[in-house]
Amino acid sequence: MASSSDRAVPGAPCWVSLLTHDLTAAQDFYGPVMGWTFRSGRLGENFTVALADGKPVAGIGNVARTMGVAVSWTSYFAVEDADVVASRIRERGGTVAVGPLAVGHGRAALAADSAGAVFGFWEGETLREWRVGREAAPAWLELRTRDAFAAAMFYGEVFEWATGRPDRCEVRYEDDAVMVRSAGHTVACLRGGAVEAAPDPRIRPRWHVYFCVDDVEKAVETALAAGGTVAAKPGQSQVGREATLRDPQGGLFTVTASGADIAPDPS
Q1: Domain count of the chain?
Q2: CA 20/CA 63 separation, integer angstroms
Q3: What confidence tens digit (pLDDT) does each residue in 238-265 have?
């Protein structure tokens, strides 16, 4: 986990990390596809930080096999007390698979919500400049699940969303989806629908990460040349041009055109 002298709003997304089982192969794929460079983090040789124009985007950890989890992009949420949050998750039908463990200058854990979507939470310092939808950070985080309102109840109670406190996230219900807002900015979406209990990772309940690229078609072409696959061909969505890709080890993510209005703030 990256760190600095700042702390994110409790309950807000604070980082994303690829849990993989081949760090070198991951860098060889995401470097040309996303235009990222990499530097060593503070967590040892099994971890690296992806950079866009010198600014941190995400972490990559060679830990999927040791943790016994699938290769995946994982969203982390900031918390004040990891033990309290772990207890809330268990009390509400979720599971805590790993941790909380001391990691660097904080504590991290991996969990799954009551529908099975995996997420992480982090107690400790975070990057001041890392905010969803801004600069180098991911453009968007979206929970794809069966029942967005049930999910909102789960996460709302776990992370104290919509409590009315000025230091917590707010939620808004828009077009059958739940928008999560922090400091007046939309940072995540919980969307329900026809999600089936199938083994295909594209349709299981999951947190999905969107990254900005300058050219969606070029990113797809580069991904295929680097051994990746296309899960959803380039197309026009309500927010812009996008495509969903899978890296050679199975990590699933979406690329969207830079400047796409992923998280519009209501006027």
Answers
A1: 1
A2: 6
A3: 778 899 999 999 999 999 987 655 554 4
